[in-house]
Amino acid sequence: MSTATEVRAALSEDELSQVDALWRAANYLSAGQIYLLDNPLLREPLRPEHIKPRLLGHWGTSPGLNFVYAHLNRLIRRHDLDMMFVTGPGHGGPALLANTWLEGSYPEVAPEAGQDADGMRVLFRQFSFPGGVPSHVAPQVPGSIHEGGELGYSLAHAYGAAFDNPDLIVACVIGDGEAETGPLATSWHANKFLDPVHDGAVLPILHLNGYKIANPTVLSRIPGAELDELLRGYGYAPHYVTGSDPALMHQAMAATLDDVHARIRRIQDEARGGSRERPRWPVLVLRSPKGWTGPSTVDGKPVEGTWRSHQVPLPNVRGNPEHLRALEAWLRSYRPEELFDRDGGPKPEVTALVPRGERRMGANPHANGGLLLRPLPLPDFAAHAVVVPEPGASSAEPTRALGRYLKELFANDAGRRDFRLFGPDETASNRLDAVYDVTAKAWQAEVEPADEHLATDGRVVEVLSEHLCQGWLEGYLLTGRHGLFSCYEAFVHIVDSMVNQHIKWLRTARGIPWRRPVASLNYLLTSHVWRQDHNGFSHQDPGFIDHVANKSAEVVRVYLPPDTNTLLSVAEHCLRSRDYVNVIVAGKNETPNWLGPEQAALHCARGAGIWEWASTFPEREPDVVLACAGDAPTMEVLAAAKLLREHLPRLAVRVVNVVDLMRLQPDTEHPHGMTGWEFDALFTPDRPVIFAYHGYPWLIHRLAYRRTNHAEFHVRGYKEHGTTTTPFDMLVLNDMDRFQLVIDVIDRVPGLARTAAPVRQAMTEARERHHRWISEHGEDLPEVRDWTWS
């Protein structure tokens, strides 16, 4: 254990002076960003007009982040390390902007904020200012892959970045407030999945500064021995740096980082030399005061080392002369005249320990992953397609075919290097298990005889935490690789907030010229609502689509392939795409095959189209449109179309299938949206549209509400009526079964209610017969269970 009172002199006098100067400069710049509108170098006495009218930002975490960054710079220089910096504390924006400005990486991407007095003024003025940059670490900050606006995801991102990057060390600062979140607590277990042979290293740095916004943090208040036991129980080797005296803390931090680096290299050397013992990776615990080096008291109340330093320690600088004087004294305590030259740039002794070129953490290409992104050679999906001699004449399990496609992907060199499959213990359940013929599940813990498909170098990454799977995948993608997240549809909601942040990151990054495109985040949602009849109500929820559909149109895409070949076509498209969040919803159970591979590719390219082979009187204007989106709705619409052929043979029925849900929006709202002419040509401007939809029916109304014939749209979907029952009964409970769809046609097409009354009565009786049958037999009606289109 290394503490500030038990240190060895790891730094020479020159190094001590240099690291302290770098730290002081970063602290000065961090405070300046929060407060100063002008007079950035304090070349004149501070006046109210030099202060921003709105004081926004977070000081409390910044000095600790600056301290870590300065010392990591020294470590990089000393050992020529390839190192990234992931910032967990939510609003650490001032610190990361300060450090990237000092190292020159920020001025390279924002030339207006150059390393001089005018550039420093821009750096200060833009922070938390209209038209400027956010107060948290955002895509505008070079070296970042982690949006700091929400807590809990830093460590998962760090491990995702380290996968398949054997020479990379990812330093991840974890705030002690962040450490209280569920995703972060789970992320400690990621060390059981990191392969010291083929992966890089993650250095978690738990920053215990004691407080959140207004409360103490749990990990800072438990006894030190208990914290030590906790971290050792997670499988780590803890190292400690504790104190507040800068000189002692610098020596302690330098010595500890030297020890930590030596341990990382020893672990990797031993593993790469043949050792298979699971390592205890180091974790560094830094205990320093919150708001370190800031005002000790304000208005007679303690600030440094308390929750009062969390945001703006001096809140009324413009209106309170005493606060103004205190701010000036605080800023001058860093001795800016020693840190910056006459032009306002950092002096050589300040940047003496800063790495050069891509070794700077703000310029590390892994943190701008599109720079490193290699195309993923994808198999031809047609080679894995099922044969479809006639629509509906055969059936297949869509995700099982996708598993065979992914197996071929994993078998090529790029798949073994740049692609991973993530999921919460559901790869086999979701019938993707063909991949285990060529790879295994990543696993570093003990293996017992009954275990299957576990290996230290496996490329399938499973843990029963959707948060951790999502975080790993995000870190993997943002550092230039490719992946797929497979999940039960109902439980992907667990990452609702995480996907929010990723979508916001991608949307913002799209507007930043130096950010290069990265591979899309691809979801495969299966075991979906309509085939969770056996697991019951708790497993029945298609609402993730609604959640994603609310987000930025530039980024989100939603696909509902109706059969095996359309799933393969959609998957190939999504794996090839960049800078999107793609949601694919597809079943794993036996599903009729409707389209051959060429037809599937064409249909998916259109996104929505008429299925003439299922329609009647295609040369006529239809009397009714039967529309569908999703595999179960497609089957019910086709069954309803067949019933209408039998019972109302003179009715002109058009069947429309929608694969790309965003096609329903206007082209003015979404890049995939249809023009008004296209929409009317497909759905008609005035005929009834009976729409069977996979999810909650009101989403279709939202997407189409501005269309000419929206008043004629009648949507069936999931209405929160579920239980443990038969597959068809799920459809009946939610009024999306074939018999109800025929009833809807009769009720909506003018004149049919009178002439087709006997047919309507027959459909009602069929639903009643269904209820009696399942109550007696526990399975669906033979006419439903054995139904085929042909």
UniProtKB/TrEMBL annotation:
Uppermost EC category: lyase
GO biological process terms on file: carbohydrate metabolic process
UniProt xrefs under Pfam families: XFP (PF03894), XFP_C (PF09363), XFP_N (PF09364)
Residue ranges constituting the Xylulose 5-phosphate/Fructose 6-phosphate phosphoketolase N-terminal domain according to the UniProt record: 11-371
Region (Disordered): 292-319
One Gene Ontology MF term: magnesium ion binding
Source taxon at top rank: Bacteria
Domain Xylulose 5-phosphate/Fructose 6-phosphate phosphoketolase C-terminal positions: 588-789
Cofactor(s) the protein requires to work: thiamine diphosphate
EC number: 4.1.2.-
Keywords annotated in UniProt: Lyase, Thiamine pyrophosphate
PANTHER family from the UniProt entry: PHOSPHOKETOLASE-RELATED
Family as reported in the entry's similarity comment: Belongs to the XFP family.
Protein's name according to its UniProt entry: Probable phosphoketolase
Organism: Amycolatopsis sacchari
